[in-house]
Predict the structure of Cyclase.
Amino acid sequence: MNPGSARLRLPMAAAAALALTCLIVGPASAADTPLNLDCQAKPPIGSAQTLTLAAGVDGTAPDTVTAGSSFTATLATQPMTVPGSVSGYTIKSIKNITLRAPVPANATLTGTSLSGGSGTGSGTPTVTVSGGEIVMTVPGPINGGQSFTLPTLTLNLTAAASGGVIETRLSGTSYSSPGLTFTASVPILFTTVSVPTSCFPSPNPVLTSTTIS
């Protein structure tokens, strides 16, 4: 083993743990749906680290709609803060935040848009639809110590012609099939380590529910 790699192994493992604590979520309001995210960070050297993050989403949609009618559902995450340091290690920034949600069943998705948000860095947030998923990407970077709010995601939906329930929720069932990913940049010794992190909701709550009447 390269002696330099051996010296870096422990700090990089610590960096992985730090990456998992990079998103500190503000207090949840009564309207928020709480989320428990099971996360894993993989440093370039050392073993993967796991941790649970608490977050929340405020979802809005009508309780009922008539068959074939159009309506909107919105998903807004809580404000978050990237800590400047954790346990003596500096958090330089986080970047490439990607949040995924499945296209709801019993409805046709006719459009998506982003609105609001703040402190998300110089990159422009985007939303796309691919493989049956709605994908919000926030390039960042978002510096350590900075508070930010992800944009609100609006879904334009048309209810199916028959009855049923239209639900929104996040994607993700495992570390290899996540609903949230981001990369943390952590200076370690004489280098900056990029630590990719993947998270999935466990359990995965319904964020909005609309019954077709």
